[in-house]
Specification:
Layout (H helix, E strand, L loop, with lengths): L5 E6 L3 H13 L3 E4 L21 H4 L16 H15 L7 E8 L5 E7 L19 E10 L6 E2 L12 E2 L12 E5 L3 H12 L3 E6 L14 H9 L4 E4 L1 E7 L1 E7 L12 E6 L1 E4 L3 E2 L3 H6 L3 E2 L9 E2 L1 E2 L4 E2 L4 E3 L20 H12 L18
Length: 375
Amino acid sequence: MCMFDVNVLVVGAGPIGIELAAALKHEGVDYQHVEAGQIGSTMQWWAPGTVFFSSPERIAIAGVPLDTPDQSKASRERYLSYLRAVVDQFDLNIQTYTRVSQLKHMQTGGFEVDLVPSTQGVGGQATQKNQPAKPVRTIRAQRVVLAIGDMHKPKLISVPGEDLPHVSHYLDEPHIYFRKRILIVGGKNSAAEAAIRLYRAGCDVTLSYRGRELDNKRIKYWILPELQWLIDKDRIRFEPGTLPTAIKPGQTMLKRCDETGQVAKHSDSIPVDADFVLLLTGYEQDQTLFVQAGVELVGASEGKPGSRPCLDRSTMMTGVDGLYVIGTASAGTQAGGVKVFIETSHVHVDRVVASIMGRPAPKLGQGDEVSLPES
């Protein structure tokens, strides 16, 4: 009989991972919790002052109210403070800056998990790029819950100059762009909000989007009118139906797209002077752990946008016995519009806890498949 170091290993300490940890502790379940970065790590690369689309009630976790000073939606900073407070309130032991480098499903049942430090100065030496780190330790877990999120790396557009120092896939503090020429590439919420914020921060903004017009299905209904007004008034330059083909210091070349969204043949180049280029074209999930554990990916070819882990929605368990996936991680790379959010994932915690405790699964109803207009 295989002996386990822990009953449940929770991987990922975003909101839903923290909510699950609080529930497991309440149930008296023997568990460990690891996170590759700091808690709420995805939110750390959001620009300062970013405000949630969802109301506080929808993103509150573990029964702890999320209070904002002015009763409005929470900012990035307020929510990170809230997550720290929840961890403190329940005294949750989360091993941060600890990455799962290998997840192996054992033939005898359970999982063998290699853990390595993931940053300098915390728990040891940093993992060098393209050089695997030696495990800090290997543990055996009877069950594993992956709450790893769905935005681990930017979607690259693969054009010359994408790796130049003035090019980024993330919006930084808007102040650093003051009185600079900014080219933003993208046509969804992140690009739209960045264009508005940078215009208001005193920037000369150009927005390039491969679509023929801005789409209210891809941009929140309260953001699109603000952006459209700025474009109509020539406050923001808009280049619809374009894609960047080459990025150089100080200037980026755009070309017109055809009906399929690809660069049209014989299209003339459109030069755009830009001190900074923000390629806000979306993000992808790192599905390495799914592949290592043998999880079936459905919805698209393995590892491609749109693929997601195959799950029993009543328990959130994959086809690999004892391996669960919860939160936005359950949606894979969310191509064609985000469907799974924090507020639609609270029910995942109830399903996993019921499965672990041997209780009947909660009835499927209004849960993670429901489209909520606010989000």
